[in-house]
Design goal:
- There is one protein chain.
- This protein has 230 residues and is α/β, with parallel strands linked by helices.
- The chain has a single domain, classed as 4-Layer Sandwich (Metallo-beta-lactamase, Chain A), CATH 3.60.15.
- Helices cover 23% and strands 25% of the residues.
- It is built from 6 helices and 12 strands.
- The protein has a 6-stranded mixed beta sheet with strand order 1-2-3-4-5-6.
- Helix 3 (148-158) crosses helix 5.
- The longest helix has 11 residues, at 148-158.
- The protein is globular and about 50 Å long.
- The model has no long low-confidence stretch (mean pLDDT 97).
- The chain binds glutathione and fe (ii) ion.
- Glutathione (GSH) binds at residues 59-61, 131, 137, 139-140, 172, 209, 212-213.
- The site of fe (ii) ion has 6 residues, from loops.
Length: 230
Protein backbone atom coordinates (compact mmCIF):
# COMPACT_ATOMS: atom_id res chain seq x y z
CA UNK A 1 0.00 0.00 0.00
CA UNK A 2 0.97 3.60 -0.46
CA UNK A 3 -0.31 6.44 1.70
CA UNK A 4 0.37 10.18 1.58
CA UNK A 5 -0.95 13.15 3.55
CA UNK A 6 -0.72 16.35 1.48
CA UNK A 7 -1.29 19.87 2.80
CA UNK A 8 -2.85 22.82 0.94
CA UNK A 9 -1.42 25.85 2.69
CA UNK A 10 -3.89 28.53 1.58
CA UNK A 11 -6.90 26.69 3.05
CA UNK A 12 -5.05 24.58 5.67
CA UNK A 13 -6.68 21.51 4.07
CA UNK A 14 -5.42 17.97 3.98
CA UNK A 15 -5.72 15.71 0.95
CA UNK A 16 -5.04 11.99 1.23
CA UNK A 17 -3.73 9.52 -1.32
CA UNK A 18 -4.32 5.81 -0.73
CA UNK A 19 -3.10 3.26 -3.26
CA UNK A 20 -2.66 -0.48 -3.62
CA UNK A 21 0.89 -1.50 -4.50
CA UNK A 22 -0.30 -4.59 -6.40
CA UNK A 23 -3.01 -3.19 -8.65
CA UNK A 24 -1.50 0.36 -8.64
CA UNK A 25 -5.07 1.67 -8.20
CA UNK A 26 -5.30 4.91 -6.24
CA UNK A 27 -7.91 7.04 -4.50
CA UNK A 28 -7.61 10.72 -3.60
CA UNK A 29 -9.70 12.12 -0.77
CA UNK A 30 -10.48 15.87 -0.74
CA UNK A 31 -8.14 17.03 -3.53
CA UNK A 32 -7.82 20.83 -4.00
CA UNK A 33 -8.06 22.36 -7.48
CA UNK A 34 -4.88 24.45 -7.35
CA UNK A 35 -2.77 21.42 -6.36
CA UNK A 36 -3.79 19.26 -9.31
CA UNK A 37 -0.30 19.28 -10.86
CA UNK A 38 1.12 17.97 -7.60
CA UNK A 39 -1.34 15.03 -7.59
CA UNK A 40 -0.75 14.20 -11.25
CA UNK A 41 3.03 14.19 -10.69
CA UNK A 42 2.75 12.04 -7.55
CA UNK A 43 0.53 9.50 -9.31
CA UNK A 44 2.93 9.36 -12.26
CA UNK A 45 5.99 9.05 -10.02
CA UNK A 46 4.51 5.94 -8.41
CA UNK A 47 2.96 4.58 -11.60
CA UNK A 48 -0.55 4.78 -10.13
CA UNK A 49 -3.96 4.89 -11.79
CA UNK A 50 -6.40 7.21 -10.09
CA UNK A 51 -9.76 5.46 -9.99
CA UNK A 52 -11.75 7.67 -7.61
CA UNK A 53 -11.63 11.29 -6.41
CA UNK A 54 -13.76 11.37 -3.25
CA UNK A 55 -14.95 14.40 -1.30
CA UNK A 56 -15.92 14.20 2.37
CA UNK A 57 -18.42 17.03 1.77
CA UNK A 58 -19.14 20.11 -0.35
CA UNK A 59 -16.34 22.34 0.93
CA UNK A 60 -16.98 25.98 1.77
CA UNK A 61 -13.42 27.28 1.85
CA UNK A 62 -11.68 25.79 -1.19
CA UNK A 63 -12.58 24.20 -4.52
CA UNK A 64 -12.29 20.48 -5.11
CA UNK A 65 -10.04 19.13 -7.87
CA UNK A 66 -12.33 16.15 -8.46
CA UNK A 67 -13.82 17.39 -11.75
CA UNK A 68 -10.42 18.42 -13.11
CA UNK A 69 -8.95 15.04 -12.15
CA UNK A 70 -11.78 13.31 -13.96
CA UNK A 71 -11.12 15.39 -17.09
CA UNK A 72 -7.38 14.84 -16.98
CA UNK A 73 -7.13 11.25 -15.73
CA UNK A 74 -10.57 9.73 -16.29
CA UNK A 75 -11.25 8.83 -12.66
CA UNK A 76 -14.76 8.73 -11.19
CA UNK A 77 -15.92 11.51 -8.89
CA UNK A 78 -18.04 10.86 -5.81
CA UNK A 79 -19.69 12.86 -3.05
CA UNK A 80 -22.56 12.15 -0.64
CA UNK A 81 -26.04 11.86 -2.11
CA UNK A 82 -27.06 14.39 0.58
CA UNK A 83 -24.74 17.11 -0.78
CA UNK A 84 -27.05 18.14 -3.65
CA UNK A 85 -24.18 17.90 -6.10
CA UNK A 86 -25.05 17.90 -9.78
CA UNK A 87 -22.35 16.18 -11.73
CA UNK A 88 -20.63 13.63 -9.55
CA UNK A 89 -20.38 10.17 -11.14
CA UNK A 90 -21.39 8.48 -7.91
CA UNK A 91 -23.59 9.54 -5.01
CA UNK A 92 -22.18 8.09 -1.80
CA UNK A 93 -24.35 6.50 0.89
CA UNK A 94 -23.46 5.21 4.34
CA UNK A 95 -21.37 2.00 4.23
CA UNK A 96 -20.55 2.27 0.52
CA UNK A 97 -17.25 0.60 -0.31
CA UNK A 98 -14.62 1.88 -2.75
CA UNK A 99 -12.42 -0.99 -3.82
CA UNK A 100 -8.75 -0.62 -4.75
CA UNK A 101 -7.99 -4.33 -4.93
CA UNK A 102 -8.90 -7.64 -3.36
CA UNK A 103 -7.13 -6.53 -0.17
CA UNK A 104 -7.66 -2.79 -0.01
CA UNK A 105 -10.87 -0.80 0.19
CA UNK A 106 -12.24 2.35 1.73
CA UNK A 107 -15.60 2.48 3.50
CA UNK A 108 -17.83 5.56 3.67
CA UNK A 109 -19.39 6.42 7.01
CA UNK A 110 -22.22 8.95 7.04
CA UNK A 111 -21.50 11.56 9.74
CA UNK A 112 -23.83 14.53 9.23
CA UNK A 113 -23.47 17.65 11.34
CA UNK A 114 -20.76 19.92 9.88
CA UNK A 115 -22.87 19.74 6.72
CA UNK A 116 -25.89 17.56 6.05
CA UNK A 117 -23.90 15.43 3.60
CA UNK A 118 -20.63 15.09 5.52
CA UNK A 119 -18.92 11.70 5.39
CA UNK A 120 -15.84 10.10 6.89
CA UNK A 121 -13.82 7.43 5.09
CA UNK A 122 -12.25 4.44 6.83
CA UNK A 123 -9.27 2.66 5.31
CA UNK A 124 -7.64 -0.03 7.52
CA UNK A 125 -7.16 1.83 10.83
CA UNK A 126 -7.00 5.24 9.15
CA UNK A 127 -10.12 7.39 9.57
CA UNK A 128 -10.34 10.38 7.23
CA UNK A 129 -12.70 12.63 9.12
CA UNK A 130 -13.17 15.56 6.74
CA UNK A 131 -14.44 18.42 8.91
CA UNK A 132 -16.57 16.18 11.14
CA UNK A 133 -13.82 15.71 13.72
CA UNK A 134 -10.70 17.88 13.73
CA UNK A 135 -7.72 17.49 16.06
CA UNK A 136 -8.79 19.31 19.24
CA UNK A 137 -11.80 20.68 17.37
CA UNK A 138 -14.55 19.95 14.89
CA UNK A 139 -16.13 21.53 11.85
CA UNK A 140 -18.45 24.48 12.42
CA UNK A 141 -22.19 23.92 12.11
CA UNK A 142 -23.55 27.31 11.06
CA UNK A 143 -24.12 26.76 7.32
CA UNK A 144 -24.88 24.12 4.61
CA UNK A 145 -27.40 22.27 6.76
CA UNK A 146 -24.97 22.12 9.68
CA UNK A 147 -26.41 21.16 13.05
CA UNK A 148 -24.56 20.91 16.36
CA UNK A 149 -26.79 18.23 17.95
CA UNK A 150 -26.43 16.08 14.84
CA UNK A 151 -22.65 16.58 14.82
CA UNK A 152 -22.44 15.59 18.49
CA UNK A 153 -24.31 12.35 17.73
CA UNK A 154 -22.15 11.59 14.69
CA UNK A 155 -18.94 12.04 16.66
CA UNK A 156 -19.92 10.41 19.95
CA UNK A 157 -22.21 7.64 18.71
CA UNK A 158 -20.39 6.71 15.50
CA UNK A 159 -16.73 7.84 15.47
CA UNK A 160 -16.11 7.37 19.19
CA UNK A 161 -17.30 3.75 18.97
CA UNK A 162 -14.41 2.89 16.62
CA UNK A 163 -11.37 1.28 18.28
CA UNK A 164 -9.39 3.76 20.41
CA UNK A 165 -6.25 3.23 18.30
CA UNK A 166 -7.99 4.30 15.07
CA UNK A 167 -5.91 7.09 13.56
CA UNK A 168 -7.73 10.37 12.98
CA UNK A 169 -6.66 12.17 9.82
CA UNK A 170 -8.62 15.45 9.62
CA UNK A 171 -9.70 17.47 6.59
CA UNK A 172 -8.21 20.63 8.04
CA UNK A 173 -5.76 21.69 10.64
CA UNK A 174 -5.11 25.28 11.52
CA UNK A 175 -2.48 24.60 14.20
CA UNK A 176 0.17 22.31 12.68
CA UNK A 177 -1.22 18.93 13.78
CA UNK A 178 -1.05 16.01 11.39
CA UNK A 179 -2.70 13.02 13.01
CA UNK A 180 -4.42 12.01 16.22
CA UNK A 181 -6.42 9.00 17.34
CA UNK A 182 -9.88 8.27 18.69
CA UNK A 183 -8.68 7.87 22.30
CA UNK A 184 -6.88 11.23 22.27
CA UNK A 185 -9.90 13.03 20.85
CA UNK A 186 -12.23 11.39 23.39
CA UNK A 187 -9.92 12.46 26.23
CA UNK A 188 -8.51 15.79 25.04
CA UNK A 189 -10.76 17.42 22.45
CA UNK A 190 -11.90 20.58 24.30
CA UNK A 191 -15.30 20.58 22.56
CA UNK A 192 -16.05 16.93 23.32
CA UNK A 193 -14.08 15.54 26.27
CA UNK A 194 -16.49 15.24 29.23
CA UNK A 195 -19.01 17.47 27.43
CA UNK A 196 -22.74 16.78 27.33
CA UNK A 197 -24.68 17.37 24.14
CA UNK A 198 -26.09 20.58 25.65
CA UNK A 199 -22.60 21.85 26.50
CA UNK A 200 -21.38 21.01 22.98
CA UNK A 201 -24.31 22.89 21.41
CA UNK A 202 -23.57 25.87 23.64
CA UNK A 203 -19.92 25.90 22.47
CA UNK A 204 -20.88 25.58 18.80
CA UNK A 205 -23.52 28.31 19.07
CA UNK A 206 -20.92 30.73 20.38
CA UNK A 207 -17.95 30.23 18.06
CA UNK A 208 -18.66 33.52 16.25
CA UNK A 209 -16.45 32.61 13.30
CA UNK A 210 -16.39 34.83 10.22
CA UNK A 211 -17.77 33.14 7.10
CA UNK A 212 -15.07 31.46 4.98
CA UNK A 213 -13.77 33.98 2.45
CA UNK A 214 -14.51 31.74 -0.55
CA UNK A 215 -17.90 30.35 0.53
CA UNK A 216 -19.98 32.05 -2.19
CA UNK A 217 -17.67 30.76 -4.91
CA UNK A 218 -16.67 27.43 -3.41
CA UNK A 219 -20.08 25.94 -2.53
CA UNK A 220 -21.67 26.29 -5.99
CA UNK A 221 -18.42 25.25 -7.68
CA UNK A 222 -18.08 22.17 -5.47
CA UNK A 223 -21.67 21.10 -6.20
CA UNK A 224 -20.36 20.79 -9.76
CA UNK A 225 -17.17 18.88 -8.81
CA UNK A 226 -15.26 22.18 -8.83
CA UNK A 227 -15.90 22.88 -12.51
CA UNK A 228 -18.63 25.52 -12.63
CA UNK A 229 -16.48 28.63 -12.16
CA UNK A 230 -13.70 27.65 -14.53
N1 LIG B 1 -10.63 31.58 7.69
C1 LIG B 1 -11.09 30.46 6.95
C2 LIG B 1 -12.23 29.80 7.71
C3 LIG B 1 -12.43 28.43 7.28
C4 LIG B 1 -13.58 27.69 7.99
O1 LIG B 1 -14.54 28.27 8.53
N2 LIG B 1 -13.48 26.40 7.92
C5 LIG B 1 -14.54 25.53 8.32
C6 LIG B 1 -14.43 24.26 7.51
S1 LIG B 1 -15.17 24.45 5.94
C7 LIG B 1 -14.51 25.10 9.76
O2 LIG B 1 -15.35 24.34 10.16
N3 LIG B 1 -13.56 25.57 10.55
C8 LIG B 1 -13.50 25.14 11.92
C9 LIG B 1 -12.79 26.12 12.78
O3 LIG B 1 -12.31 27.14 12.27
O4 LIG B 1 -12.72 25.84 14.00
C10 LIG B 1 -11.56 30.90 5.56
O5 LIG B 1 -11.93 32.06 5.39
O6 LIG B 1 -11.58 30.07 4.65
FE1 LIG C 1 -15.98 22.13 5.55
Amino acid sequence: MLFRQLFHKESSSYTYLVACSETRNAILIDPVNTDIDKYVALLAEHNLTLIYALDTHVHADHITASGLLKRQLGCQTAVSTLCHANNADLGINDADIFTLSEHESIKAISTPGHTAGSLCFLWRDHLFTGDTLLINGCGRTDFQGGDAATLYNSITKILFTLPNETLVYPGHDYAGHYVSNIAQEKMKNPRLANKTKAQFIEIMDNLNLPYPKLIDIAVPANRDCGLSNL
